[in-house]
Write a structure and sequence with these properties.
heterodimer; A: alpha/beta; 9-stranded mixed sheet; 17 helices; 11 strands; B: alpha/beta; 5-stranded parallel sheet; 4-stranded mixed sheet; 21 helices; 16% strand; elongated
Chain lengths: 362, 507
């Protein structure tokens, strides 16, 4: 075995998936089953007219070249033959042959040996969902839990952010090419994740992202974690696929409720109805996943006490009213209301959100 | 024979004296105009010939050379027609040449010899007085405008014939009396008494008017952003005489003004397809842009995020310096641009972000939208306010205030500012620069503490801090307080909301 820790066969498998990525995209509804096939069957099944060419290329495949390329872009490899390969991934019917790791395989090994939880959800999420993802991540990160997510916009990013706020460590599982941020807009988040965490993917450094890779990525997220928490998901969301996989893999599943009328809460509510754990605070994750009682040091500091004369406005905002409604509810005129709003914001009790709403800071 | 008449070219919005010299001597009949004129000046030869003949004069035989001096100055437009024609008549002895001494002449001619409506008469009249002319001949339709300048005899004539009659010793026709009929402008702006609900935006509108602050209204479609912005001029104090003259001169030069003095503050609302030159001024010869036409008034940019990035960037200098310098070829011109910027925008391309889950914009669209809004322009906004759909009971409630009431409070606050800011060059809090905001705002200790806190917890940037001080100063002025209190700072902080446009929730 080479120093870089990936054997030729596994690297070849990884290359093969990239080579027939286009074919896999066409058949993306069958991807989980297809990934279970061996190299030969996979080529026979998918490659079609390219079959001979793919076989020839596979035979001539230069594993050392591949490894050198990975080293060039700063990726370390860890294949399934490596004793340090995350054991949790073995429960998958088709475990990834090679993990491409930005941030170091040693660090990855460290992280997955500890407690690992996924917090996932919609890209386009409400301030409420984002705030929840953030504060849950912060809470479990304080209990030394590693937070896994997909670095997508919205809930995923909020989960990573929350972890970083608590100086926690986090794993971003990317669809492909983990040596750079995907989506590119998450560049700064990606950099901060890598200071103590890792970015991982099944596919190599030069493989453009295709739709099937998100499904493939989701299975890694589900398998890596002892528990998967869905914060917000519309009907048909990818987060629900991950939740389903977690269930199949006999992992714990949690969901954060929302307003019953909100399409974003549809997914979590469905999950709760079918037996997922209702998650409203950190201990709802820590206890079922690890039997951990939330230690004093681990819980976030108790919410700052709201000064009593600001309480009516605070309560109205906590009920989800927008500022004008909340002023009305609290019996304030615009001037007094805006003044109190500033006090609450300065005190860190509320956080301003796009569209002029406020969320309660967790 | 040689004759000379004074007239004026308009350079930006400033008059420059031009001497029209006409020389006629024997030779093959020809008529040339020299002196860096544009096409309109070259074409004036044909207009002048027809106008002179149709007015019953004789067009001189011989070689006519007209010169527009100084020859280095570019001359554009048809305003030199009347001066050229009278100089030709004087040079050919059809009007007494010495009678033209002390006169300035300005106006376009029709083929029939009438003096047509011309743009920029006020600027010309000011130039004539400054140059020491005693009388000014202008088209009759611009009599009131020219008469705004004191110490100048205005001879407002309808035709070349009438102008010649006055020069022959006739008495000038009396000036038309009665107020100028500029219908569109005399209409009252819509009143705040028609607005129900919207308590927070109304407060912001009043603060903006009182301090001359730039204002951004953000909200879903149909919530009333444009409706509110259109009511702003009604809450602004009327123009002072000096300001009114300044505004009238600009609008007259731009040709968007009927006649007489403009008394209402300008409200300009250019469409979002406007080019950078259209907004800030430009072209050749350089013309005033919307920013200059909004001088001393309001520039309203509806659908801010739809404007081209380059157009918005062009507004940076005008906003910061109160004027814009346009350099084209060998010309460098300065246009005044002291306006209040009011902008309205949706929170996202579809308009429903943050309001409910109806928003259907993709991530990339949202990012693009926010990127367009953020940056230098947003930095120059003092007030950022969300406009939300009023609740049903608010719509049925009596209006919060009326324009007259608000105007009274605004005027009082402006008076206080004028006293405090006397001698600093700023007329209102919105025009204070960072240094003045630092030293002249008079924050009491609690207010300064609160501001420091907001800065420490990261709610404010360094620039944002000055913005908040300015707004807090205006809030105190509205309340009639000498010192800015903690409550004023807090209110100012709340009126400068940033989340919707700056922080994309989670980035």
């Amino acid at each position: 075995m080479s120093v870089r820790g990936a054997c030729d066969d596994c690297v070849a498998r990884s290359w093969l998936l990239a080579r027939i990525a286009g074919h896999l995209d066409v058949a993306r509804n069958r991807v989980p089953a297809l990934l279970e096939l061996g190299d030969d069957d996979l080529i026979a099944e998918l490659a079609g007219r390219d079959e001979a060419a793919v076989r020839a290329e596979l035979d001539a495949f230069d594993a050392d070249g591949y490894r050198t390329r990975c080293t060039e872009v700063g990726l370390e490899l860890m294949c399934r033959c490596d004793p340090g390969y995350p054991a949790s991934l073995w429960s998958l019917p088709a475990e990834p042959a090679v993990l491409h790791v930005a941030g170091g395989t040693g660090r990855l090994r460290d992280l997955v040996e500890g407690h690992v939880v996924a917090i996932i959800g919609a890209r386009r999420a409400s301030p409420y969902a984002l705030e929840n993802a953030r504060s849950l991540a912060r809470g479990i990160a304080r209990a030394n839990v590693t937070v896994v997510s997909g670095m997508a916009a919205g809930v995923d990013s909020a989960a990573h952010e929350g972890t970083l706020e608590a100086s926690g460590r986090t794993i971003a599982v990317l669809p492909s090419a983990p040596q750079r941020a995907y989506p590119a807009a998450a560049r700064s988040l990606y950099r901060r994740i890598l200071t103590a965490g890792v970015a991982v993917s099944e596919l190599g450094p030069d493989v453009p992202v295709r739709r099937w890779m998100f499904h493939a990525r989701n299975r890694i997220v589900a398998a890596l974690c002892a528990m998967t928490v869905v914060v917000a998901a519309r009907q048909g969301s990818g987060a629900l696929t991950t939740a389903g996989l977690a269930c199949t893999l006999k992992r714990e599943l949690g969901a954060v409720p929302g307003q019953i009328t909100s399409p974003l809460a549809w997914g979590p509510h469905q999950l709760i109805k079918t037996g997922a754990r209702l998650v409203t605070e950190t201990s709802d994750i820590l206890i079922p996943a690890f039997g951990m009682a939330p230690l004093r040091d681990f819980t976030p500091p108790p919410r700052l006490l709201v000064p009593s004369h600001l309480q009516p406005l605070f309560d109205a905002l906590a009920d989800g009213l927008d500022p004008p409604q909340a002023f009305d509810e609290a019996g304030l005129d615009a001037e007094e209301g805006l003044t109190q709003l500033a006090v609450l914001e300065l005190g860190g009790h509320i956080r301003r959100q796009p569209g002029g709403r406020f969320s309660i800071a967790g | 024979m040689l004759a000379r008449v004074a007239t004026f070219a308009i350079d930006g919005v400033q008059p420059r004296q031009v001497w029209v010299e006409v020389d006629i001597r024997a030779g093959l009949p020809a008529f040339t105009v020299v002196g860096l004129g544009d096409t309109a000046v070259r074409e004036s030869r044909d207009r002048i010939r027809a106008a002179i003949l149709n007015s019953g004069f004789k067009f001189p035989d011989g070689r006519i050379t007209a010169n527009l001096a100084p020859a280095f100055l570019r001359k554009a437009g048809p305003g030199f027609d009347a001066a050229l024609a009278l100089a030709v008549l004087a040079a050919s002895g059809q009007v007494p040449a010495q009678a033209l001494t002390g006169y300035a002449v300005f106006g376009e001619l029709s083929l029939g010899g009438e003096l047509r409506d011309s743009a920029g008469v006020l600027a010309v009249a000011e130039g004539a007085r400054r140059a020491g002319c005693t009388a000014l001949i202008v088209p009759r339709s611009r009599a009131r405008e020219a008469a705004l300048v004191e110490g100048l005899t205005v001879v407002a004539v309808a035709s070349l014939r009438a102008a010649a009659a006055v020069l022959d010793g006739g008495s000038p026709p009396p000036l038309p009396d009665g107020p100028a009929q500029n219908g569109a402008r005399s209409a009252r702006p819509p009143d705040l008494a028609e607005v129900h609900g919207h308590e927070v935006p109304l407060l912001a509108l009043e603060v903006a008017a009182a301090g001359g602050h730039n204002l951004l209204l953000e909200g879903a479609p149909g919530t009333g952003k444009t409706m509110l912005a259109r009511r702003l001029p009604g809450v602004l104090p009327p123009l002072t005489r000096t300001e009114a003259i300044e505004v009238t001169r600009i609008h007259s030069v731009a040709g968007v003004h009927a006649d007489g003095l403009i008394t209402a503050r300008p409200f300009r609302a250019p469409h979002h397809t406007i080019s950078p030159a259209g907004l800030a001024g430009g072209g050749s010869p350089p013309r005033a842009g919307e920013a200059t036409l909004a001088h001393r008034g309001v520039l309203f940019l509806d659908e801010l995020s739809e404007f081209q990035r380059t157009s918005l960037d062009a507004l940076r200098q005008p906003l910061e310096d109160g004027h814009v310098t346009i350099v084209r070829g060998q010309q460098s011109l300065r246009f005044p641009t002291r306006f209040m910027l009011v902008a309205a925008t949706n929170p996202c391309p579809c308009g429903f972000a943050g309001v409910d889950d109806r928003c259907s914009c993709g991530e990339a669209e949202l990012r693009r939208h926010r990127r367009r809004l953020s940056g230098p322009l947003l930095d120059r906004m003092d007030l950022l306010v969300d406009v939300r759909r009023p609740a049903d009971q608010e719509l049925r409630a009596p209006p919060v205030t009326s324009s007259a009431e608000a105007l009274a409070r605004v005027s009082e606050a402006r008076d206080r500012q004028r006293h405090r800011l006397a001698g600093t060059g700023a007329a209102c809090n919105g025009e204070m620069d960072a240094r003045m905001a630092g030293s002249g705002a008079r924050l009491d200790d609690y207010a300064a503490d609160e501001l420091g806190r907001a800065y420490r917890v990261g709610l404010l940037s360094a620039r944002g801090r000055h913005r908040v001080v300015r707004v807090a100063r205006t809030v105190a002025d509205l309340a009639g307080r000498e010192d800015v209190t903690r409550a004023d700072v807090l209110l100012a902080l709340s009126l400068r909301q940033r989340a919707g446009v700056e922080v994309p929730g989670v980035s």
